[in-house]
Specification:
Number of strands: 2
Protein name: AzlD domain-containing protein
Largest sheet: 2 strands, antiparallel
Radius of gyration: 19 Å
Keywords: Membrane, Transmembrane, Transmembrane helix
Structural class: mainly alpha
InterPro entries: Brnchd-chn_aa_trnsp_AzlD (IPR008407)
Pfam families: AzlD (PF05437)
Oligomer: single chain
Order of helices and strands: HHEEHH
Length: about 110
C-alpha cells in the first residue's frame, strides 16, 4: 500500500502534534495552576469527553447503530469499574459478556 507524500506529511504532522500535546501536559503541570473555580468545570469536561468517546464506541458501528451486545458489555465493564474491580477483570468481563451475547445471536 503506497501513500502520497501529502498523506505522509499530514500523518507525520499529526503524530508530532499529538506527541507535543501529550508531552506538554506533564511539563506544564507544576508550572500552571488553575483557580479553584475553574478546576471543577475542567474535570467535568474531561469526564464528559471520555463518556462521549465510550458512548460512541459502544453504540456505533460505522455509520449505523450497533446491536445490543456491545453496550451491555460496556455497561458490565462500567459497573465493575465503579466497584473498583481490577482493570484486567473489567476488560475480560466486558468482553466475555459481549461474546456470550453474540454467541446467543443477540445483535
Amino acid at each position: 500500500m503506497s501513500y502520497s507524500p501529502t498523506v505522509l506529511a499530514a500523518l507525520l504532522a499529526l503524530a508530532a502534534g499529538t506527541f507535543v500535546f501529550r508531552f506538554t501536559g506533564p511539563l506544564l503541570r507544576s508550572r500552571l495552576t488553575f483557580p479553584p473555580r475553574a478546576e471543577h468545570p475542567l474535570n467535568t469536561s474531561a469526564m464528559v469527553s471520555l463518556g462521549s468517546l465510550v458512548a460512541t464506541a459502544a453504540l456505533a458501528t460505522g455509520q449505523h447503530v450497533g446491536g445490543a451486545a456491545r453496550p451491555v458489555g460496556v455497561m458490565v465493564g462500567g459497573v465493575l469499574a465503579c466497584r473498583k474491580a481490577p482493570f484486567l477483570v473489567v476488560v475480560i468481563a466486558a468482553a466475555a459478556v459481549t461474546a456470550v451475547l453474540r454467541l446467543l445471536s443477540v445483535p
